[in-house]
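Sample entry (586 residues):
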Amino acid sequence: MQSGDGFLGLVRSCRDLVAAEVIHSRIASLLPIADDAYLANNLIEMYGKCGSVDRARQVFDAIRSKNCYSWSILLCAYSHNGYLAQAKEVFDAMPCKHDPICWNSMLAAYVRNGHLEDAKRFFQIAPVTNLISWNTLLSAFAQRGDLWEATRIFQGIPLRTQISWNSMLAALALNNGLQNTVDFFHQMPEHDIVSFTTLLAAYAQAGHVEGAKRIFDKMPQRNYVTWNAMLTAYSQNGHLEDARRLFDGLAERDLSSWNAMITAYAEAGQVDEAKQIFQAMPVVDLASATAMLVAFAQSGRIDRAWALLLEMPVQDLKSSTAMIAALVQAGHLNEAKREFQQMEQRDLAAWNTMLSAESQSGNLEEARCAFESMPEHSTVSFTTILSAYAQQRHPEEAARIFALMPGRDVSSWNAILAAFCHAQELSKAVETFFEMPERDLPNVISWNALLTGYASRGRCSSALELLARMKIAAVCPDETSHLLLLTACARSGEVERGRSCFVSMVMDYELKARKEHYSCMVDALSRAGRFDQARDLIASMPFVPTSLDWTSLLTSPEEGGCVRVKKFGEVEKGRKNSKPWHNSIC
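Predicted structure, serialized as C-alpha cells:
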C-alpha cells in the first residue's frame, strides 16, 4: 500500500481550492484516507486554508478514528474563516477536553475573531493553562492596544519565555511611545531577531527612519521579516526611493516583499507604479490582489477594481470586505452596498465594515438597521453604532447602547464621552470619565475627549485642572491636548494662561507648534483686544495666515469695541519689521 507521506508537501503548500480538490481526488484514488488520521488532518487543514469549511468538515466526518488534533484542526478551520459559532460547537462536542490543545485552539479562535473578553473569560475557566495559553492572551491584548491588560497578563505569567518578552515589547511599541519601548528592550534578558525587528518597527512607527536603519544595521542576523520591516519603514514614512532601492537590491523576495511595495505605491497614490509591481510578481496571492484592488478603488478606478475582483481565481471574505471598504473610502457607498448584498457569506468583519460605512456617511437610520440585522455583535460593532449616535447628537441612544455592551474597551468609553461632550452634557461627561476603568486612563484620547467638552464651553480653569491630573496620572498631553487647552483659554478670555500653555507646550513638552496652535493664540489675543500683539504674531508665525486669522484680527474689540480698519495695512508692515513673537516669549 502506498504511503501518504509523498503527498504531504503538496497538501501543506496548497492555497487554491481548485488545486486542493484535484490533490484530494488523486490521494483518494490511491489511499484509504479515512483510515489515516494524520493524512486526513492535513487535508482538513488544507481546505481550511483554502476557505472551504464544508469540504474540511466532510474529510473530518469520514475519519474512522479521530484524535485530538482532528478536532482542533477542524475548529481552527472554522475560526480562520470567521465561523466562531461553529468553532464553539466543535469545541463543545470534543471528547478530549482535558487536553490543553483543545482549550488553546478555542482560545485562539476567540482571539482571532476579536472576542477578547470572551477569550479572557474562557482562559479563566480553563482547567489547565500553559505558556501557549498565556502568550496567546498576552499577544491578543497587546495587538488590540490594551496596554494595561497586556501588562497585567505579562506580570502574571509564571515562567516567561522569549515569546512573552517579545509580546510585551510589541504591546509597548504599539501603544506606549518609542522611549518606553527602547527602555523595555534594554531590560529584556536576551534579544532575538523578533525583538530587534519589533524595535525597528517602533522606530518606523514614530517616524524615526534613521533610528530604524541604525537598528537594522546593528542586527546580528536578518531574515525576510527583517528586510520587509525595513522596507515598510521606508515606505510608511514617504521614503519611496529608498524603499525601491532596498526592494531592487534584495537577493530573494517573498510575497510580503512584493506586497509591501504594492502597498507603498498605492498609499502614495502612485497606482501605475503599484500596477507594474503587481504585474511583475512571479506568484500572486489574495493579499497581493486585495492590495491592488484597494489601490484601484481608492484612486477612483472602480471599473479596474471590479475587473480585478472578478478575475481572482478564488475570492475570500477578506478580499470582498476590502473591496467594500475601498469603495466606501472612494465615496461609492451605493456600489459598496451592492457588493455587500451579493456576498454569499458575510463574516463579522464584513458586517462591521458596512456598519462603519453607514455610520461615517451620516446615515443613522441605515446604520441602526445594519446593526440590528447583524447575526452577532462584537465590541467594535457596539462602539461603531454608539459613535453614530454620538455624531448625530443623540446622547440618550448612545447611553442605551453603552449600557447594553457586554464588554467595553477604551474606544467604547471614548465614544460615550464624545456623545456627552457633543451634546453639551458636560456633567455626564465628567461623571463618565471618572467611572472609566483605571486600565484605560493612560490613553490620552480619553483625556482629550473631556478636554473637548471643557474647550467648547470655555472652561479654562477646569481644563487646566484636568491637565494637572494628567501629570499626576503620568499621561503626557499631546498636540491635540494643548490645542484644546488654548481653545478653552481663548474662549474664556484667559489670554495669559493661554500664552503660558503655548510656551509650556514648546519648552516643557518639546512639542512642535502647528498652524492650529498659532491660529488659536491669534484668536485669544484678538478676543482680549490685544490687536498689536495678534498682528505681530500673524506677522512672525512660520505659517501663511488664513482667512480665520484675518477674521480673528479684524473682529478684535479694540478701543470701544471696533477695529480701526486702517491698522489692517499695518500687518504687512509688521510682517517685515516685527521680531518673532514665539521666540521672544520662549
